[in-house]
Amino acid sequence: MKSGLSSRFFLTLTLFSLIGQVAWVVENMYFNVFIYNMFSASAEDISLMVSASAIAATLTTVFMGALSDRVGKRKIFMCAGYILWGISIFSFTLLKTDIISKAFPLAASAAAVGITLTIILDCVMTFFGSTANDAAFNAWLTDSADSSNRGIAEGINAMMPLVAILVVFGSFMFFDLKLASSWTVIFAAIGAVVIVIGVLGFFIIEEPKIIPSKTGYFYNIFYGFRASTIKQNKKLYVFLVAFAVFNISIQVFMPYLIIYYEKSLKMANYVFIMAPAIILASICTFFWGKLYDKKGFKFSSIFSVIFLALGYIILFFTKGMIPVFIGSFLMMCGYLSGMAVFGAAIRDNIPKNKAGMFQGLRIFSQVLIPGVIGPAIGAGVLKGAETITNSDGTTSFLPNANIFLAALVALCLLIPFLLILFKKEKST
User: Fold this and answer.
1) I need a labelling partner for 202 at 20 to 30 A (CA). Which of 178, 301, 354, 390 fits?
2) Is 163:18 a contact under the CB 8 Å cutoff?
3) Using CA atoms, how far apart are residues 360 and 333, in angstroms rounded to an integer?
């Protein structure tokens, strides 16, 4: 615990990051499974949902991040946001074909209405989640740490998606995800937990000492998009562009990953394959944050990209249980360690007392641009993919390994941006 980071800081970081990531994992990896299983969604439907959610997340973070700077508070946005986030997750328990048929008796297809409602509710949920997590929590984390401990704090934060995946995988293995009743229990349980964390936050969060912005609200919203701001923070914006390319690579395959394991590879026990990979990758990610503090961006980012590329290559060429485990482990190590490295570097370059204003830009790089471009590339690669006929007569597509090849090509586009950043790091 360097530089005065307290036990309450680490407790808040762990709980809010973990539970927030559990909610995001369910959205990012299992909403796709939900509309695939419940409403026979196509790859284009999944791509549309991911893109719409990405746009909602970005706009929310821009507006609410600027508002939190203007107010000079993070705690209220985090706590109230988590409570409303939990309520919105709970509302997904109503998305059942029998309820939809009764509510929309004139609809030609309950499945089509279900897909539309899922996308709309996903955007509503994303508004509350992005307010609480993307805008307020991430601004709080930026304000509460400094350059001496940024890596360890970001390492803990970056490992939480993997821990969350482990928690979700472990919990979901007890459910038959083809049954609507299973999803009712899942959404109710996760919604309740998120609400509890929001309430708990009122008692454990230490409000960072920040100076409320004296500039106007709309000035704050557009601050990060001004030419003068870009000119003053050139290195930060190169990091943001590079981070966007990195995340585009991830989003090419991520929306289709679980479906690929379960349906294409026919690995009903994929949880037992992924769980050890997730545990090992989580440990690596935790120490990777420390490595960033000691070795800097160049060393830590090079190996993150290498791990990710090796994971893609193995997953593209192999289908056996052991090589898929190895490929998944390397892919997740590269993904999460890369998130830690880029996250820490971006936070280190954000101007003091302006963390909220820049969270929207971070989401542009992490969510919006990748969330629109990545799944679209994946859907394009899967156009004409093999299909199967379901028990109800509907058809569903089967993702194939080409999503990993496309992700590798996208990752190669990161190289010139890394070279620019290495040069800038050397000159400072």
Assistant:
1) 354
2) yes
3) 26
Checking 251-254 for CB contacts under 8 A at 24+ apart, the result is: 251/50, 251/370, 251/371, 251/373, 251/374, 251/375, 251/378, 252/374, 252/375, 252/377, 252/378, 252/381, 252/403, 252/406, 252/407, 252/410, 253/378, 253/403, 253/404, 253/406, 253/407, 254/28, 254/29, 254/374
Identify the CATH number of the domain in which residue 144 sits. 1.20.1250.20
Quote the tokens at residue 379: 């859907």
Amino acid letter at 389?
A: T
Q: What is the DSSP string of 374-394?
A: HHHHHHHHTTT--EEE-TTS-
Model pLDDT for residues 305-318, shown as the tens digit of each residue: 999 999 999 999 99
How far apart CA 136 and CA 138 sit, in angstroms, is: 6
Q: What is the pLDDT of residues 78-90, one digit of tens each?
A: 999 999 999 999 9
- pLDDT single digits (tens) 18-35: 999 899 888 877 888 888
* Separation between Cα atoms, residue 395 and residue 111, nearest integer Å: 12
Tell me the β-bridge partners of 389.
Answer: 395
Sign of CA dihedral 113, 48, 34, 191: negative
Q: With respect to residue 1, please indicate whether it lies within any of the assigned structural domains.
A: no
Mean pLDDT of the chain: 86
- Scan for tokens 């990209």, then name that residue: 305
Number of domain units in the chain: 1
DSSP calls for 245-299: HHHHHHHHHGGGHHHIIIIIS--TTHHHHHHHHHHHHHHHHHHHHHHHHHH-HHH
Whether 171 shows a pLDDT value over 90: the answer reads: no
The CA distances from residue 132 to 74, 127, 150, 254, in Å, are: 9, 9, 21, 23
Q: Is residue 407 part of a domain?
A: yes
Contact (Cβ atoms closer than 8 angstroms) between residue 328 and residue 214? no
**Position 104 in a domain:** yes
Give residues with Cβ within 8 angstroms of 384, minimum separation 6.
none
The answer to whether position 365 is within a domain reads yes
pTM above 0.85, yes or no: no
Please tell me the predicted confidence (pLDDT) of residue 394: 66
Q: How far apart are CA 106 and CA 124, in angstroms?
A: 25
Which residues does 226 contact at the CB level (< 8 Å), separation at least 6?
A: none
